[in-house]
Amino acid sequence: KGQIFQSAALLLGGASVFCGYETYQGNEKFYSNILMPTVHALFGPEMAHNLAIKALSYGVVPKKQKQEFDRLPCKVFGLEFSNPVGIAAGFDKHVEAVGGLNKLGFGFVEVGSITPLPQDGNDKPRVFRLPKDKAVINRYGFNSCGHQDAVTRLSKNISGETILGVNLGKNKESLDATKDYTEGVLKLGTYADYIVINVSSPNTPGLRSLQGRDKLKNLCTAVVAAKNQLPNKPPILVKIAPDLTDHDKVDIAHVVVQSKVDGLIVSNTSIARPESLESSNKTERGGLSGEPVREMSTKLVADMYKLTHGNSGATNLIELLMEAKVTENVLFVGKVPIVGVGGIWNGKDAYEKIRAGASLVQIYTSLIYEGPPVVNKIKRELNELLEINGFSNVSDAIGVDHK
Ligand SMILES: Cc1cc2nc3c(=O)[nH]c(=O)nc-3n(C[C@H](O)[C@H](O)[C@H](O)COP(=O)(O)O)c2cc1C
What we know:
Blueprint: H1 2-25, H2 28-42, H3 45-57, E1 74-76, E2 79-81, E3 85-87, H4 98-103, E4 108-114, E5 127-130, E6 135-138, H5 146-157, E7 163-168, H6 177-188, E8 194-198, H7 213-227, E9 236-240, H8 246-258, E10 263-266, E11 287-290, H9 294-309, H10 315-323, H11 328-332, E12 338-341, H12 347-356, E13 358-363, H13 365-370, H14 373-388
C-alpha cells in the first residue's frame, strides 16, 4: 500500500513539475492542448478572464514572451510600433493589465470600452465558449469602471512602454451619445496614443445605429473637434461591425474621410449565426467572435480599403458611391489606415488581413483558446510569411491583394 502511495505521489509530483515548467516556458502546444483546456474545464469564461487579468496585473507571464522580429516594426498614425499585433478591446476593460499585456509581446494595447459613468453591464452569465467552433459569444454590455476610475489608473499605471489605445463606449441609459464620446475624448484623450469610438457593440441598445450616415457624421465631427482641443491630438479611430450592408460601408467611408477620422477598426463581434456553428451555446444572445467571423471581417477590411484607398476593382461599391453622389476624389484622398480584427489564430490569418488592407491587427478570442504563447506564434509566423513572399517589412504587404 505504502509503495503505491509513494509511486502515486512521485507521479503527481513529476507531473506538477512538468506542468509548472511548461507553463513557465510558454510552450505553445502545452498551452493550447493541455493548459487552456484544463483552465476551461475548471473555470467559467468570466472567472477565467478575471483570473487572467489578475495574473497580468501582477506581471505574471510565461518566460521570454516579448520577442521581436526584423520585418515587423512599423509606423502607423505617426506612431512607431515594435510589431503590428495588438490586444483588442474588451480584454482589459478597466485598465488593469497594460504592463502584463506589454510583457506578452503585444505591439499595442487597447483598453476599454470605457463608459462615462461606472455601470455593471448585463446579468451573468454573459460570456459563453463555443469550443467546437473556436468561438465565443459575449453580451457583457459595457461593464465599465467609468471615466474617473480609468483616469486614476491611466495616470499612474502607464509606463509609456507600449502604445496605448483607449476605446470609448456610451452608458446604456445615456440619451446623448455624442456627449458621452466627446467627454471620453476630453477626459481620457491625454493619456491615449489613439482613441477608438466604438459604435459597433451589439450589446448596448441603439449603439450600432450610430453607424448610420447622419448620426455618424455628427458624432465624428464632434469627436474630432474635441480631440483638436487636446495638446497631444490623438488619432481617432472608428470601430465598425461586420454585419454592414454595402450602402452602410459606402456611407461610413464617406463620413470617415470627410470628417477627418484617422482610422478604422474592422471589426467588432457579429450578430450573425453562421450555419456552420456546432456548439450548444450557439443560440446565446450577443456578439460572436473567433474563427467564424474571420472571413466576414477580412472581407470588410478589403471593402473599406477599396473605398478609402481608391481601387477600381471594387466595381459594385464604386457604383454605389456614384449613386450616393460621392465623387471618387472626395473619398480616395483619405487613405484611412485599418486595424484588422476577427478570428486571427496564426500568422497566415494576420497576413491575409494585412494583404486585404489592414495596417495593424488585433486578437482576442484566440488568446482565450491558445493562451499567451499565441502572440509570439502569430508574430513569428507572420515574419516568416513576409520573408517567404519577399517583403522586407510588413508595411510593404498592406493591401497587396488589390494591386
Ligand atoms: C468577451 C469579449 C468582450 C469584448 N468587449 C469589447 C468591448 O468592450 N469593446 C470593443 O470595442 N470590442 C469588444 N470585443 C470585441 C473584440 O475587441 C474584437 O473586435 C472581436 O472579438 C473580434 O476579434 P476576435 O475574433 O479576435 O476575438 C469583445 C470581444 C469579446 C470576445
